[in-house]
Amino acid sequence: MKKFVNLVLIFSLPLVIGLISFEFLLRNITNDYSYKRDYLDKNAKEIEVLFLGNSHILYGINPEFSSFKSFNVANGSQSLDYDFAIYNKYKNKLKKLKCIVIPIDYTSMYATLGDGVEKWRAKNYTIYFDIKNQNYQYNFEVINGKLLKNLVRIKRFYLNKKSDITCNKLGYGTAFNSKNAKDLVETGKTASKNHTQSRKNNLSFIKNQKSLASIIKLAKQKNIEIIFVSSPTYKTYYEKLDADQLNNTINHIKEITAKNENAHYYNFLKDKRFIASDFFDADHLNEIGAKKFTSIVDSLIQTFEINKFYLTKK
């Protein structure tokens, strides 16, 4: 028996070494998550406006067009619990923070990353942001991605010298360009269907209520303004949304902001200032729309700053 165990160990050793090496190679590929973590580690103390949230903010807000020192920490499918986790992690380093912008979209109250189809993304927060997760599998790159895709990533980074970073220096996602725009009719139909959740199970809604309350409470303690926005979408998307899901979401955020003086809500979902040429697909802006949306949100923040200035003087 002892001989058998020794043989198993001998033959298993190369596999174990191979997996460890593979994990090491994957973790050292620079990506949007590691870039944003490094940026916050180095520059959090100078940030005045922090943009959190999902892909609607990732591709919809470009801090290059903000009049404040701001940074975009949004990521694809990033839910409210991770918005809170990131803010909570850096709360004491954000010495000059004045405002946080967070999306409250059609899916925001009815979905969390951990319960969705893209739950594999949770490993990016565990590995690169050191945000703990009860699911141990999210501690590893090697078991949270397809083998072929990971091999391509390794080849591209180590041989072709190309990283996985797809954002600009201030965190804005550059992949959704107007030159590669998608069909607005088809993407509207598909996205609205995929984003409509079953409301029979209110567990996600309850989780998101708690996350919202935690974000607002922490911001209030730090005297930080929060702007919640429903991001612009095209009519082929918003015309197909479930009325109950949408109304429940909007009514809840209106209710919670009415009770908290540091929290504000603005609904741009059907904003007519955004036209077809502003969109990459039916629910995401392109670089043209992002410039427009950033300027609009920036104006709101400026208004709050002016009001606070006069209130302080009085």
What does this structure look like?
Helices cover 48% and strands 9% of the residues. With 314 residues, the protein is of the alpha/beta class. The strands form two sheets. It has a five-stranded parallel β-sheet with strand order 2-1-3-4-5. The chain has a two-stranded antiparallel ribbon with strand order 6-7. The longest helix has 27 residues, at 287-313. It is globular. The termini are far apart. Residues 309-314 have low confidence and may be disordered.
Overall geometry: globular
Structural class: alpha/beta
Roughly what percent helix?
A: 40-55%
Q: Average the pLDDT over all residues and give the rounded result.
A: 92
Going by CATH, the architecture would be 3-Layer(aba) Sandwich
Percent of residues in beta strands?
5-15%
Quick one: biggest sheet? 5 strands, parallel
**Side-by-side strand order of the widest sheet:** 2-1-3-4-5
Tally the beta strands: 7
CATH topology label: Rossmann fold
Distance between the termini: 84 Å
CATH C-level category = Alpha Beta
Number of helical segments with 4 or more residues: 11
Order of H and E elements: HHEHEHEHHHHEHHEEEH
* pLDDT < 50 runs, ≥5 residues: 309-314
